[in-house]
Amino acid sequence: MSLQRIFQADAYGQQPVTQNFWHRAFEPEVLGEPLQEEHSCEVAIVGGGYTGLSAALKLAQQGVDVAVLDARHIGWGASGRNGGFCCLGGTIAEDDELIRRYGEVEARRYFYAERAAIDLVAELLDQYEIDADVASKGETVLAHKPRRVDQLKDTAADIQKRYGISCHFHGKDELTELGMNASGLSAGLTIPVGFALHPYKYARGLAAAVKSQGARFYEQTEVLSIVPADDGQYVLKVRKGHLRAQKVLLATNGYSSENMPEWLAGKYLPVQSNILMTRPLSEEELKRQGWFSNQMAYDTRTLLHYFRLLPDNRMMFGMRGSVSAAPQARERMRQAARRDLERMFPEWAKVETPDFWSGLACLTNNLVPFVGAVPNTSGLYAAFGYHGNGVAMATYAGQLIAHEMLGEATNLAYPAFLKTAPTLFPFGSMRRHLLALSYTWFSLKDRIF
Ligand SMILES: Cc1cc2nc3c(=O)[nH]c(=O)nc-3n(C[C@H](O)[C@H](O)[C@H](O)COP(=O)(O)OP(=O)(O)OC[C@H]3O[C@@H](n4cnc5c(N)ncnc54)[C@H](O)[C@@H]3O)c2cc1C
Q1: Which domain of life, per UniProt (predicted)?
Q2: Which of 129, 163, 256, 427 is most buried when burial is the number of CB atoms within 10 A of its CB?
Q3: Third-level CATH fold of 137-194+271-358
């Protein structure tokens, strides 16, 4: 029995995270031993990232006997590797597209959910006293070319229309005053919602909260299959045992498999994202470059760069990855990230970048997340597909799906379209190659326009 995945095996191993600053700076305690022999629970959650943890928290609070299983350790996936932008997002469908497909009311419900998701993370940090190095007041979009300034104005109008939020426009001089000086920038726009956090501290803090509510963890426990049993329960098979559960949540997002269970085949598309991190920069180095803001920021490229200065003055610099997870491809991505960092921040051209890591985020063919029951089953649920913006939305989706599993109404905004199963991507298990064409076109577009 082996899991069929659509990236090379390397993407699912340790190599992409050996130089992960978040993991390196924060040694986790073991939360659970590998599952051995036979056990049972009411709800089994496969995947110990934000989705699984947030769902586990809600369920455990309601007295449900929950077990969270992760193939590695809790927070090992994208939840312990991301840029920590807790921001609006989760879909990459345009507003008009959402309205055309699902109607104005449903689309608005989603926009409301995006804001509520950020508030939810803030509440959890507060309620469980999770110290996750929170910083940044909203996020700032930076025009990487003069001709992209109009795009910022369009973004401000869209944000106003979508969320009723007024953004602040910054000319080049104001950006410099704000400590956001980088090569090629023409203007900026601050969207005053959201904040930055240490993603792994957040994941591990959530896990501690889950544990405090009585849930169990099984780490280093890869689920190999989920088989319906005669009594209506499910049997989750792992290498050295199995777990019987009344209900199961698939919370594997970009780390999902085509055959675990087969329903997932073709319904998700993992995409690689990479982060390069400098060593701590001195005050002098920050001053020379003119970047000393801790604002989380990204540029107007379609294949965008996302970056922010951490509390100890390391610069975190993220960009989308390649369609290959082979070691040579990862090295090329590291070099590309380094080249782009040097171009944007020429004063730091000689600064060491000891950390570089990659991870898998997840797209759906419908361009919106799926958060619902697996059709034609009883007791099997899934939540995935946050389109690279899951810090807030995966946390929120976890709570939504927990309500759904409990069969209780929620006063959280829960657009009905999130419960519609994603359509299939073309090209089956070769579908990641679809990305190659888009990447080439987007990078050309970013250079020309
Ligand atoms: C480099 C990078 C940067 C990002 N930056 C941002 C950002 O700044 N802001 C933002 O909002 N989002 C960002 N994202 C996206 C965000 O991290 C994800 O959307 C979010 O973490 C998804 O959480 P999750 O719990 O659904 O999945 P994950 O955190 O990926 O968890 C899935 C887990 O499932 C486990 N698993 C898989 N298969 C099995 C199995 N068979 N048995 C047992 N366990 C299994 C894996 O081990 C993994 O731990 C980024 C992603 C990446 C990769």
Answers
A1: Bacteria
A2: 256
A3: D-Amino Acid Oxidase; Chain A, domain 2 (3.30.9)
